[in-house]
Amino acid sequence: MRPLHSDQPGDERARRSEAEPSPPPSLDTPHPQSDLPDSPQLGNEEPKQPVKKVKAGRNLPAAIITGVVLGAVILGSLLIQPIVFLGVAGVAVAVGTWELATAMRKAGKNVPVVPLAVGAVIVLALTWFGGGNALMLSIGLVVAALFIWRLGEGATGYHIDLPASVLVAVYVPFLGGFAMLIASAEDGAWRVIAMLLMVVLSDTGGYVAGVFFGKHPMAPRISPKKSWEGLFGSVAASSLGGALALWLLFEVDVWMGLAVGVSIALAGTLGDLTESLIKRDLGIKDMSNLIPGHGGLMDRLDSILMAAPVAFIWFWYLLGLAGDLCLFESIDSSDLVTQRWEPGTCGGL
């Protein structure tokens, strides 16, 4: 009689096959009752569509709208009442000073933000009412105050913090003070308009020429997008616009107007490169995101600040159109409470 259970190898293999679970179905074998497509195998995925890169650059529509609004505010302040322009310029210089000082602090430089912003407004106000003497005196006092302020912070970082603070004071309120010297003349509103027109034309001409024709980088280590073709566009637009504006407004010789426009374009370009170098050193793209399409206010003021002293030199020394510089002349204290002087007095109003 045969036993119910056998120890033969075949029976043992049968018992093991019943006890072990069946392996999972292969990914290569479709389910017999499924109409779904086969699962993709690893390494055989369809290539992904390349992600479209967004071209970096200025938000042109926002930049145009913002530029028109800012231009209307400046033009309105100049034409309504010159003293209103002092308020607009004071706010602009204070904000620009705040942006630059804040960027310095974020980069590890101990720069006093609020004292510099307040000092910038004081410099512009004293320059408006006191002329060139007041500009030199006020900026000197601001720099001296920075020396005194830094004494209480100890020796650590002194050689970094103090030069950075002085740079902010000289770059923004001091250069901005030359715009006040131009505006304080009897027909200063039109002089400022002429200067701003040349700066705007320089920026616009450089942008258009650079976009359509720019092939040869001008300063790749500072501003890679600037090209020699863009510089030529800046010079051409500023010189032509300057010649026309100065001839219509002040009957300046056309050739002299062309020279003024060329110098304003070069100064504005140097101002733009200077700010680009500062931003590259600080590791930032824009001074702030305050103005849509432009970045920070300093990103708009950089060209104007460098062009203002050049325009003042042309108006005062060469063209005889600016008011008295009033350097090293006595200032009547009673004039400080008035808004206007007679032509030829300190301030040239």
TrEMBL record:
InterPro entries for the chain: PC_trans
One Pfam family matching this protein: CTP_transf_1
Membrane disposition: Multi-pass membrane protein
One Gene Ontology CC term in the entry: plasma membrane
GO terms of biological process kind: CDP-diacylglycerol biosynthetic process
Region of interest called Disordered, as start-end residue ranges on this chain: 1-53
Principal localisation: membrane
EC top class, as a word: transferase
Record GO terms (molecular function): phosphatidate cytidylyltransferase activity
Assigned keywords, A-Z: Cell membrane, Lipid biosynthesis, Lipid metabolism, Membrane, Nucleotidyltransferase, Phospholipid biosynthesis, Phospholipid metabolism, Transferase, Transmembrane, Transmembrane helix
Extent of Basic and acidic residues compositional bias: 1-19
PROSITE patterns according to UniProt: CDS
Reactions mediated catalytically: a 1,2-diacyl-sn-glycero-3-phosphate + CTP + H(+) = a CDP-1,2-diacyl-sn-glycerol + diphosphate
Pathway entry: Lipid metabolism; Phospholipid metabolism; CDP-diacylglycerol biosynthesis; CDP-diacylglycerol from sn-glycerol 3-phosphate: step 3/3
Organism superkingdom: Bacteria
Transmembrane segments: 60-77, 83-101, 113-129, 135-152, 164-183, 189-209, 230-250, 299-319
Keyword Transferase applies: yes
EC number from the UniProt entry: 2.7.7.41
Keyword Translocase: no
Record family assignment: Belongs to the CDS family.
Name of the protein this chain belongs to: Phosphatidate cytidylyltransferase
Protein source organism: Natronoglycomyces albus
